Amino acid sequence: MIRERITDKEATCLLILFLLGSSILVGIGVRAKNDAWLAGILGVVFFIPFALIYARIQSIFHGRDIFEITILLYGKVFGRILIIIFSWYSFHLGALVLRNFCEFVHVESFPETPLIVITLCFITINIAAARSGIEVIARIATFCLPVVIILFLLMEILSISTMDFNNIKPILGNGFSKVADVGFSSFSFPFAESVILLGVFYTLKKRESAVKVYMKGVLAAGIVLITLTLVNIFVLGNMIEDYYFPSYASFSFIKVGDFIQRMEGTIAISYVLTSFIKSSICLFVACKGIAAVFNLNHYKFIVIQTGLIMAYFSLILYDNIEEMVDWFQNIYQFYAIPFQIIFPLFIWVCAEIRNRSEKRDQSGKGKKGV
Description:
This protein has helices at residues 8-20, 23-26, 36-60, 66-108, 115-132, 134-158, 176-188, 209-236, 246-251, 264-293, 303-316, 321-335, 337-369; strands spanning 255-256, 260-261. By secondary structure, it is mainly α.
């Protein structure tokens, strides 16, 4: 089977759009209200060590995906159990992103259209992308990222007239402990979700690329999200927590003269692109994992079935939008700990031990040869 390969630039674009994903619309750190931007900064700071761990895993086993690495470290039986756990997280995360996006479209644009219709339309595109392979998704991401960034800059500039910079005060009005707690939530959503890309970055051409991609991608996405959070605070103030989709709400206040107003639809374009990339990657990785568990020749055989099951699962996740918001604000950060923290640490420690053991063996053989 021919190995797919992506460049550092394509991988960085993938990572940025993956991290922006649902978070550009539902926001990060909203429970901290006017300190949400500080929670976002803490989220980035908390994640940087884990970004280095993810990159190190990929560097040690250059050219191998997380499923091959797991089998190599733990054998076929226990390794497959870990693969099932990781694949479940990728599948579940894909369903969460799919539901978030479809709920947004349903609530804001097509309230009379059944949610299942919107979901089936979107998952069809995800299935096509996942079957095309990661190279195609990466090229799409390279094209989409400039569009997303330009739209953000345009909307933020147009929002200046609606901003009240006093809304950021008082800084740390609820204490640092509240910001730290919400900062951990920002770590978990969206930054640590990039653990999923351990199933993608085996396609990097160079061993040292993983660190560069993770650092550039995380910092770029962090700047975008923190800037967007500040805009939401300046426009909405402490009411930021009262909106299901604060970015969409803040941009709805844009009004320049009598001819530029109601610009919130523009942010929806960015949301479509980022959600498409993120959910397609989740579907791709989930299918790769399922194929590894059942030793299938190719993951493409199960993309359609897995995509349709993901769509159905997304529909039964919540009964309404209030449950959806409560899940990602209060529950998700704890649910994700085994997948985002424990699993990669487990892989990384064993990988380092194995790597050092192999180096000692090679050194010993070299001395005997002399």
